[in-house]
Structures are given as structure tokens and as C-alpha cells.
Amino acid sequence: MSAVGCSLFCSIQDDEREFGMADYESARARWCPGCGDHAVLTSMQRLLAEEQLAPERTVFVSGIGCSSRFPHYMKTYGFHGLHGRALPVATGIKLHRPELEVFVVMGDGDCVSIGAGHWVHATRYNMDMVALMLDNEVYGLTKNQTSPTTPAGYATNTQPYGTYLPAMNPVVATLGITNASFVAQTAEWIPPHLYATLRAAYEHDGFAFVRILQRCPKFTGDIFQQYIQSPDMVELLEHEAGVETPALHAIYKNRRRHDPRDIHAARQLAETDDVVRLGIFFRDESFPRYEETRSLPSFTAEERISILNEEFDRYAV
Amino acid sequence: MPAELVTGNHAAGYALSAAAEANRHARGATCGIYPITPQTEIVEYVARFPFSKTRVVPVESEHSAMGVSIGASLAGARAFTASSSNGIAYMVENIMVAGFYRLPIVMVAVNRTLGPPWNIWADQGDTLMLRDFPWIQFYCEDNQEVLDTTLLSFRLAEDRRILLPALVALDAFILSHTQMGTELPEQEEVDRYLPDLDLPHRLRHEAPTTLGGLVWPNVAMSQRLEIDEAMERVPEAFEECRYAFIEEMGRDPGNAIQTFFTDDAEEVLVVSGTIATTAREVVRRRRDDGENIGLIKIKMFRPFPEAAVREACRSAKKVAVLDRNYAAGVGGIFWQELRSVFQGDGDELLIQGYLTGLCGGDVTPSMIDEVVVDLRERDAMDKPVWLGIGNGKGAEG
User: β-strands B106-111, B78-84: how paired?
Assistant: First the structure.
């Protein structure tokens, strides 16, 4: 490397900037007062500051919905895309700029409704990114319509006589997807747990899917109120290979030791709905990642011509 | 007939629900619904309305909303939905399919700017994107016209000579969220106006068949020709539906084009949607001042009422077309249609395009005055004139 090249290289390495949480704050968040999105935003800014992630190395991709305003409030790269289509955009970014830290922010409408196809395939691609599903169990931006995660019987503007079907369980569904490598659930009203889960997702090598239970004070405040008022209705899944939050033990007595490497136990725990379980259900970094499996051998010009000729020969008359 | 203060969305919802109820003695009605601002109240109204023999299906996307309506229509139901903006963009594949299957589905579309960047205000780009599809298209000026045109669309679309889907468009917020005095027809009136639907190619137990299989090019081409012939029959069938409506409801749902002082006008403004209300007042004022100016409001965009427009422009020397829509690299879409109408035999007619109120901008009387002044000073057509951008920095810039 030439002297000039070295000095340029070194100047980048000697980045002495220090980032505080304020360095990741952009516009003032315009979610409703009491909206769970605020807690996730703060937790995320804290994570980035703790990790000292340079804003130009970080990208937030969202779709459409209340939570999809997330990139507006982060002073990083941001892409506010189409409804349900955040994951394919994130896939393209990560494939061509693998050095970027990619975070995808979706709501329940975005992820498991209009964009459900992408959720299944992005999980299977297992690319190294964090996918957050902020689940308020209702369409909030369009003002109170049933989402796939709205509880049965809950009256909304599109199902005013009560939601017909049982709610989809996104954790169960994600655990059923081939090549799923990280599946977690947390809640925005328990900041230490939220933060620990986001950190674990960030540290995971692969596609980290995190469902964040999230209050919509306007339309679904009462759905989550019971879990806030009665911590015994919540069960923390703890393990040294998952997340552990000793600070919460005084309040959350209901805890279970669950090894997140055990897929069968994970599925069983996710299926039963007697309590709300928070923690890492499953984590395995040995699964193939799309960006790795896509590495092709490189060819010389002569080899390319030879390949092309072989292709032409298939059609020769 | 009671008149109520209702929004454009509620006028549309009322019409869809009444049309659904009217088919209760036949095979009922079905709609796939999915919310999107600013049409959400339409599908919410439909979901709340307990009409008979009907299925309202809250689905997971606009694509599926039209898909459900297609399936229900094939099964013989009266089918409809509503959407807007990027919702229509996502629905496009099935919108096209509804036309090619010759299904008389009615869609109410609230015209909203396509994103990104995101914007929820009025722009016709979403529905005009469908201009080459086999769909009849109407653009409305007020809430009464929304209600009446929606009802008329069912009768027209289901006419055996037509069997094409129909779209009724209204401007975001200016109509969708604005209350206006609107006469709401009684169910018995709608029952009489809309006969029971018996789709000739619905699924029939006595003759199971598969639709949409692979065909040779000439067969597919003949399907296009049949669509073209059906489109050609629309103006006549529309007139019949319109007169039947007047007879039943005692109210004119509006002609394919509506003219205002065009008989002797040398300058003519061509508009659609809510811009018409403002433009009409400007023309009235200028008429009072002795100016020789007129107005054409285009309600039916597909098929384009070529003959009527040609007739209305017979004394015109200059025409200004105001478009709240934009075809990239070309200009306004109504402007293109006008130029196409007069291509060849009307070359001496100056037809100038003005892009006004794009992406939800207000179209004010002074802006329309600006158009008139510009048109008057002009001696040749030029590139479209963009009005209303200001300094490009928004309301605070």
C-alpha cells in the first residue's frame, strides 16, 4: 500500500468521534403520547450509542404504519418504503453493503399482513440483520382496523361486531420457518428486557426476528394493561445463551429457564398461551446465511467467453 | 328523499351498501375490504352496514381485496371494493384481471398522490395509471355525484352489452372528508334502479368450466376486440342508465361531459373532479365581464367521450386543459387525451396543458385566472405549464 493510501486508511481507522444518544436523534417523534414506539426508539438509540455505531454505518428500513416513521427519528441512513416491503429492500441493501448494520422496523400490519410473504422468505434467507415487529395488535395509522394479531372478539372498525378469527401468533409462525435462526419476544413497557433483547438480536449472526408487544394507547391500550398490572401473567425465559435480566426478578417472579438452542421446547413454549412469554425462544448461529451462500467463484474473461459459448451451443441449430 | 350532510366517503359507502342490499333476491353481494387513507371510511361503512345475503371480507392487502371481489363476482355476487393511491398500485394485477374476465365489479377510488415521498392529498395519478385497462372510469365533482355515479356504475357495468368493471373516483379530502348536503335514496328506489344481477359467465353447477386457460394469440386478440366493442357501446348504455336514473330518482347523475357556456366560447377550460367547481365560478365571473369563455367538465374518462368533446369545442380557438395528474416526461393526461381527439383535423386549435394542484395542492380562483391570462397571450402550444409549486419549500418555505 502506498504512503498516501496508508494515511487515508489510517485516518478512517482513527475515528475519534464519540456518539451519545442525542447523536442518533433526528426529528421530534410525533407518535401519540403513551405510544410504545417511543420506548423502542429510545432503547434503539441507547443500543447504538453503547455500540458506538457510526450513523453512516447504520441503516433503518421501514414500510408503512405508525412504527414505520422510525427512520424519520433516527439520524442514520433511513428508508421509508412501501407497505409490507421493508424486508426485500433491506435484503438488497445488505447484499451490496454487507458492512452496514441493517435494522428493519415493521408493524404487525406490515410484517404479518400485507408483507407476510416477505417475512417468511427473509426469515429463510437468514441474512445478518435485525427485524423488529412492533406489534400493537391493530392497524393504528389507518385508525383501528383488525390486524392478523388482533385478539378474537375484539371490536374494530372493520370487524365492528368482534374480530372473527383467533389471533395469529407470529412467534409460533416464525419458529416454523425453515432456517429461522433467532426468534425472540419482548415488551416495550419493560425497558430492561427490551434493551437486553435488542442487544442480543444485534449480536446475533443471522436474521434476528424480534416481536415487540407494544401498546397503542388509542386503540389497544386495554389489551396489554392486564400484563402491566399483573406481572404474574408474564413469564420471563432466561438462560445464559439467551437473555437474563436479574434487575427484573423482584417484579417478575414467574421465570423459566429455557435453553434457546432447543427448537422443540421453543415451539412448545410459544404455542401455549396461558401466559405471555418474553425472552429468546430460539437462537442458532450455525444456519446458512444467504449472503454467504451467494458467494460465486470469479472467472477470467476467457472463462466467461467459454461459459457463454457453451450456453450458445445449447441453442445451436 | 331525505338530504343529509355526509362526506364523500359516506356517500360512496351508502351507495355501495344500498347496491349490495338491492341484490338480495339474487346472489347477494361481496366485497374484499382493506383500509388506506383517505378511503378507509368507505370500507368501514360497508363493514358496519348489516345488509342481507352479503359477505364483507376484511383481507390482508388490496391485492386480495380485489381478488375476493373477483372470486365473488365469478360466483355470481354483486362485487365491489374501494381503495386509493398505492393501494391501487398494489392492486393493479387483479384490477386488470377483473377487466379481462369481464366482471362488472365497481370500485370507488379516492384519488390520492402516489408515493414516495408520502403524501395523502388529492392527485389523479393513481386511477389514471389504469387508463389502458378495460375499466370504465368516472371522475366526480361533489358528494351527490359520487353517490349517484356509484349506483349508476353498477347498472352500467352489469348491462349485458357492457360487462366491464367501473371505477368511480373522487378527490382526497376535498370530497372524501368534506360534508355536503346529499340526497340519500331510499332502498326501494335503489332496488328498482338496480335489477338483480345474473352474470352470464358465472360459475354454474350445470356447466362446470375453467376460465382463463392458455389460448392461441388470435383467441386472446379476439378477447381484446370484444372488449373494444363493449367499450364502444358504453356511451349509449351510459345515456340509458342516466335517463333511467333521472326517472327513478328525479335527479341527473351528470352527463359524460358537462359544458358551461361553450356554445359560443372561443376560449375553453377543460377540467375534471373538484377543480370544476372553482373553474366554473371563474368562468361565470369572466362571462359577467363579457369575456367569451366556457368550460368543459369531463366526468367519463374511459371510454373518452371524444364526440362530445369535439362538439363542445366547435367554436373554440384555444383550449386550456387543467390536469391534477402527471404522466412522466409528457404532461397532464387529460391534456394528452384532448390532443389525441383533435389530432389531424383540428390542428388549428391551440390546446395548452396546465399542471395544477398536483400532489394535493390547492387550485384557487387566482390560479385559474393565471391560466386564462396565459392562454390568452399564447399563440402556439408549448410544454405544459406548472402552477402552484411556489418556491418548492412547502407552506412554510
Answer: parallel
Which of B132, B94, B86, B90 minimizes the C-alpha distance to B110?
Answer: B86
Look at the alpha carbons of B334, B340, B343, B346 in this order and tell me if their dihedral is positive or negative.
Answer: negative
Report yes or no: A159 and A214 within 8 Å, Cβ to Cβ. Answer: no
B14 in helix, strand or coil?
helix
Contact B117, B179 (CB under 8 A): no
Contacts of B43 in chain A (CB under 8 A): 158
Q: Cβ of A80 under 8 Å from any chain B Cβ?
A: yes
C-alpha cell at B157: 357495468
For chain B, the helix, strand and coil percentages under 3-state DSSP, each to the nearest 5 = 40, 20, 40
Q: How far from chain centre, in Å, is Cα A92?
A: 16
Range A17-288 classified under CATH 3.20.20.80? no
| Helix or strand (DSSP H, E) at B26 | none
Candidates A82, A110, A145, A150: best to mutate against B (most CBs of B within 10 A) is A145
CATH of domain B3-249: 3.40.50.970
**Would the CB atoms of A113 and B60 count as touching at under 8 Å?**
yes
Bridge-based pairing state of the strands B166-171 and B318-323: unpaired
Strand locations in chain A (E): 58-62, 77-80, 101-107, 129-135, 182-187, 207-213, 234-238, 255-257, 276-283
Minimal CA separation from B49 to chain A, in Å = 10
Q: What are the extents of the domains in chain B?
A: 3-249, 257-396
What residues in chain A have per-residue pLDDT under 50?
A: 1-11
What CA–CA distance (Å, rounded) separates A254 from B393? 55
- Angle at CA B275, nearest 5°, toward B117 and B145? 105
pLDDT at res. B394: 65
B44:A145 CB<8 A: yes
Query: Residue B395: what pLDDT?
Result: 57
pLDDT of residue A5: 47
- Name the residue with cell 375453467: B210
Q: What are phi and psi of A17, to 5 degrees?
A: -65, 145
**pTM of structure:** 0.93
B3-249 against B257-396: fold identical: yes
CA-to-CA distance for B95 and B129, rounded, in angstroms? 11
A64-77 burial, b at 16+ Cβ within 10 Å, e below that, comes to bbbbbbbbebbbbb
Q: Whole-angstrom Cα distance, residue B77 to residue B55?
A: 10
Q: For an interface test with A, give the residue of B33, B40, B81, B114 to mutate (most A CBs within 10 A).
A: B40
Which residue numbers in chain B have pLDDT < 70? 1, 345-347, 394-397
Per-residue exposure over A226-261, b if at least 16 CB sit within 10 Å of its own CB, e if not: ebeeebeebbbbbbeebbbbeebeeebeebeebebe
- Return d(Cα B13, Cα B74) in angstroms, integer: 23
- Domain over B257-396 is classified CATH 3.40.50.920: yes
Tell me what pLDDT residue A316 has: 76
- Domain borders along chain A are 17-288
Burial B187-214 (b: 16+ CB within 10 A, else e): eebbbebbeebebeeeeeeeeeeeeeee
Order the strands of the A129-135 sheet from edge to edge: A77-80, A58-62, A101-107, A129-135, A207-213, A182-187, A276-283, A234-238, A255-257
Contact criterion met (CB < 8 Å) for B86 and A84: no
ipTM of the complex: 0.91
The answer to whether A287 touches A267, Cβ cutoff 8 Å, is no
Task: List alpha helices for B118-264, DSSP H.
Answer: 125-128, 143-158, 187-193, 217-249
